[in-house]
Amino acid sequence: MKLPFALPKLEYDYNELEPWISEEIMELHHKKHHTTYLDNLLREVKKLKESPENLIEWVHSSPALAFNGGGHLNHTLFWASLLPSHRGGGLLRRGPLQEAIFDTFGSLEQLIDKMKVQAANLQGSGWCWLGQNENGFFITTTPNQTALSLHQGIPLLGIDLWEHAYYLQYKNMKMKYFEAIWNVINWEEIEKRFLTQKGVS
């Protein structure tokens, strides 16, 4: 997964994910938090003898790269995984991804329930993932800004469980935020990742 070392431009305005994610949270999260990870990542990259072309291959090579590179990698994936509900966010349309989810989990609701259990059990900050490997789907969590390792599989969807993603709106009710975010998930984008991993163009 090649990524530009730049803050990604969002395909929606900060207020378009309301009421599920507030404009204030989105602006702070994107402009401030992601920018901090990116600035620190660029500082670490300058210390290297050669610049990484593929961040995911470098991101576990040192604690500073793991944290800041993971922060950039995870958030870049996260922003593209969101879509305003009035533009189809939250809607899993009939297609290969829906079929695979139904075959594996029984329904979208059952997938969400399984991810919710993992998210609730995560202590401290981190991410909850729906990933894909040669064995099919898997659900896991990673602490802090740890990105999924290549040996684990390909991330299809990552839910940010850091307090900065929800606290201004949901206070200490992390799971209320987790339940709400499904209303703005960009399933079309996730299906593209799913088909790419399966080698379907």
TrEMBL record:
Coiled coil: none annotated. SUPFAM superfamilies: Fe,Mn superoxide dismutase (SOD), C-terminal domain, Fe,Mn superoxide dismutase (SOD), N-terminal domain. GO terms for molecular function: manganese ion binding; superoxide dismutase activity. Residues 95-193 form the Manganese/iron superoxide dismutase C-terminal domain. PANTHER family: SUPEROXIDE DISMUTASE 2, SUPEROXIDE DISMUTASE [MN], MITOCHONDRIAL. Destroys radicals which are normally produced within the cells and which are toxic to biological systems. It catalyses: 2 superoxide + 2 H(+) = H2O2 + O2. Keywords: Metal-binding, Oxidoreductase. It is an enzyme of class 1 (oxidoreductase). Belongs to the iron/manganese superoxide dismutase family. Its EC number is 1.15.1.1. Mn(2+) binds at H29, H75, D160, H164. Residues 5-82 form the Manganese/iron superoxide dismutase N-terminal domain. This is Superoxide dismutase.
